[in-house]
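Comment on this:
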Amino acid sequence: MSDTFAPANNALSDRATPLRDSATLTEAAYEALRIDIIRGARAPGERLRIERLKQLYEVGPTPLREALQRLSADGLVVANGNRGFSVVTLDIAEFDDINIARTAVETEALRLSIANGDDAWEAGIVSAAYRMEKADAELAASGSETLDRWEETNDAFHHAMVAACGSNWLLRIRKNLHDQCERYRRASVYLRRGDRNLRSEHKAIAEAVLARDTERACALTQAHYARTASNLAEDFATRTPSSGKDSRTGTGAQ
């Protein structure tokens, strides 16, 4: 049986991302729920009851159901027959599968981007690498207080590397895989500041890409994602299944 775990705090959260005014109600509900599922405000395994969601997101049942159907297609929500919807649980075997697909898509997009990239693409990488270096330093100093900003910067950094790949389909698939991986990073305690030099890893990737050293850039990216997977596997192993507790201490990870 696959190993699964819930986050440390299993209590239902009243946090909810505000709906974007410029979108349709369905689109706004979809975006807000997607953000909250990825960031953990809607916890893995949480039952998504329409009545409660109506109160949290201040939107009617029809847009919510349509949004949940879309999230089900994204693999973030599961439909439970007549029991409604729930957030997909976290499963280490599933993450391993996601990471294999993510690495394959990322390295192929990276190869194409290095081959096609122009001066504007290079300038984007330089800018993204500068912001990434600052965010890595802030995370190392402050920890979880800067996690949201770090995730956004990390997303922009890796996107900059592949932005010139020339395939919107590749980029869409890549985005969905990235969002799936972010759920696992946020639910885990893998960002152990003393265990890993993210600043050095990101700098090496950017330098290899700018040098258009395709094989080195791909190898560094693959190793970067593999380290994340290894850390996550260790974190899953320290938790009792579906309890969110650290098996070494009997308490939830902080």
